[in-house]
Write a structure and sequence with these properties.
409 residues, alpha/beta, TIM Barrel, Lyase, Ornithine Decarboxylase, Chain A, domain 1, 2 domains, eight-stranded mixed sheet, eight-stranded parallel sheet, 16 strands, elongated, binds pyridoxal-5'-phosphate
């Protein structure tokens, strides 16, 4: 059915979080027990990031089932680790790249370039050349200056025009920094036609850890109108819509189960022409739950009536997401005594902002005791630093081979 007759503005009822199954249960079952984690620390030392590939497979397939007509390009940025790439490659995933470093990683793991897209809206000429040399030919632009960079590559490259849809509810409102208005998108598409540059379609990112699907629905509706307008202007038809990342995971608050979350998105996508190819660029949803961090207590002091525990990992290390990402990870001690006291968890560096929690209920702990933090896969070690020369946590990969429980390194 033609878009003009099929598409119309529509309201989709978004379920309340409390009315839907939340995702917490599905995160519980592949997590290692405290005892297993203590064994790993005995073997490898602390701090550790325990990366369970089985959780990656589970999340990838959960999202795939929830968005059955969408090609999932895993966005490398939240966890650019070779074992993650290998695991997803084996499951049939595609990949979303943003830098030449990410290209090097997927290339070294043998990812076929036709399974990749490059979605950084602002690129140097060398970034474009690196991607093309690898064989990645789909790029994103959101302004005329960026479009003109492709004049030299018009025979090789295809372009997605990125739209901006502000979302203050998300952890990161990515449309503040990137994306254009629908009017500018039409200007870019028209100018590309004059330049002989191929426009493949549209893209957007409604913001990372988006708490409800309403923004996706609004964005898809707006894109549907642009697709229609492009047809009416007699410009070459758009073939692709990339709905970005942003799919949420339960840190400290419940979120909708992913199939419930995606149901209105699927309804909105069904309004588009049947031939439209739909892509997504999930990052956090695929990897947040696959990493459990383990830090050990280096020392302690009582200050103003509270015990401060100093860890061998902190916000300049694996907990960098507390600063960059607003994530509130589930953190607890391995020791599970009933009596608990309000305590402070601090990182190891000499900086006073290096505090993991100003107020956390913990049992009385000894130096060397372990602090275990779940849901630490996304935007954690990816943004860690070497400040003060404290070594970053070692990554221990579990379950990389399907059906194998052996440690792989
Ligand atoms: C262009 C792009 N795609 C995908 C992602 C991944 O988003 P998320 O981790 O929210 O799924 C990001 C995150 O910054 C991004 O900038």
């Amino acid at each position: 059915m033609a878009l003009s007759t099929k598409f119309k503005d529509f309201q989709i009822k978004v379920p309340e979080v409390s009315a839907a199954a939340n995702q917490s249960e599905c995160f519980a079952y592949t997590q290692q027990t405290n005892q297993e984690i203590e064994q790993l620390v005995a073997q490898y030392g602390a701090p550790l990031m325990v990366l369970d590939c089985e959780a990656i497979r589970r999340q990838y397939h959960a999202l795939k089932n929830a968005l059955p007509n969408v090609t999932l390009h895993f966005a490398l940025k939240p966890l650019p680790v070779a074992a993650v790439v290998r695991t997803l490659l084996a499951e049939g995933a595609s990949f979303d790249l943003a830098t030449s470093g990410e290209i090097d990683l997927v290339a070294s793991e043998g990812v076929p370039s036709e399974r990749t897209i490059h979605t950084h809206p602002i690129k140097r000429d060398s970034d474009i050349r690196d991607a093309l040399a690898y064989g990645c030919t789909v790029f994103v632009v959101d302004n005329i200056n960026e479009l003109e960079k492709f004049i030299a590559y018009k025979d090789q490259a295809e372009i997605l025009v990125r739209l901006s849809f502000r979302n203050t509810e998300a952890f990161a409102d990515l449309s503040k920094k990137f994306g254009c208005s629908p009017e500018t998108a039409i200007e870019i598409i028209s100018y590309a036609q004059q330049l002989g540059i191929r426009i493949k379609g549209l893209s957007f990112h409604v913001g990372s850890q988006s708490p409800n699907p309403t923004k996706y629905v609004e964005a898809i509706n707006a894109c549907a109108k642009i697709i229609l307008q492009v047809n009416e202007l007699g410009l070459p038809a758009l073939s692709t819509l990339d709905i970005g990342g942003g799919f949420p995971v339960p840190y400290s608050a419940e979120v909708l189960a992913i199939d419930v979350f995606c149901a209105p998105i699927n309804v909105a996508l069904a309004q588009l022409p049947e031939t439209m190819q739909i892509l997504a660029e999930p990052g956090r949803f695929i990897v947040a739950s696959c990493v459990t961090s383990v830090a050990s207590i280096m020392g302690q002091a009582v200050r103003e009536g509270k015990t401060w525990y100093y860890l061998d990992d902190g916000i300049y290390g694996s907990f960098s997401g507390l600063v960059f990402d607003e994530a509130l990870y589930p953190i607890d001690s391995a020791k599970q005594d009933f009596t608990r006291f309000e305590s402070v968890l601090a990182g190891p560096t000499c900086d006073s902002i290096d505090i993991v929690s100003e107020s956390i209920m913990l049992p009385k702990l000894n130096n060397g005791d372990l602090i275990i933090s779940r849901m630490m896969g996304a935007y954690t070690l990816a943004t860690a630093t070497d400040f003060n020369f404290f070594k970053r946590a070692e990554v221990v990969v579990l379950n990389e081979q399907v059906h194998s429980q052996e440690l792989t390194g």
